[in-house]
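> tool_call: predict_assembly(chains=two)
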Amino acid sequence: DAKTTQPPSMDCAEGRAANLPCNHSTISGNEYVYWYRQIHSQGPQYIIHGLKNNETNEMASLIITEDRKSSTLILPHATLRDTAVYYCIVRVDNNNDMRFGAGTRLTVKP
Amino acid sequence: DVKVTQSSRYLVKRTGEKVFLECVQDMDHENMFWYRQDPGLGLRLIYFSYDVKMKEKGDIPEGYSVSREKKERFSLILESASTNQTSMYLCASSFSNGANEQFFGPGTRLTVL
């Protein structure tokens, strides 16, 4: 069962903000939203996670809707090195696996 | 800087061989995980461990076993490698408390001929 839905691919111009959407309409009250990315031939890299409130770190911002049924990952100034597959994941606690779906392939173009 | 290392980036083995994939983390994490990643199938959990000498089956444990004798090391064993085990193998680790992120190693691309 897919717990998240993401568009398969997106393009973004270098220097512009990249907004990656994720739908998680069946999310439970105690499930967090995590974002990872995977650059070609590397292991997944953690970006950010949140429960209810919007979150920001040095890499990105995470905007979660009030009903928590969807979220958006924002890369404020995309660079060519941000080209990767971005995964949105929901999970309860830390002992369980990360259920990665197909993700969104983001291509940042010059 | 946090680190998860895997013993090999690329490995080529023959059908029937016993294969060991090693993973080491230096973050004192309690939890460790082994995944495989195949095109179109995403990451699938093989086994995980939440403490030394403890192990739990993931979604696809058949054909694999694991060993965790020390906290920092988690080994994946293919008892008799088969061609359908050709894949990218990823190790990850995390703390056990709270909603903490998993840190991944660079992966081992295993080819079984």
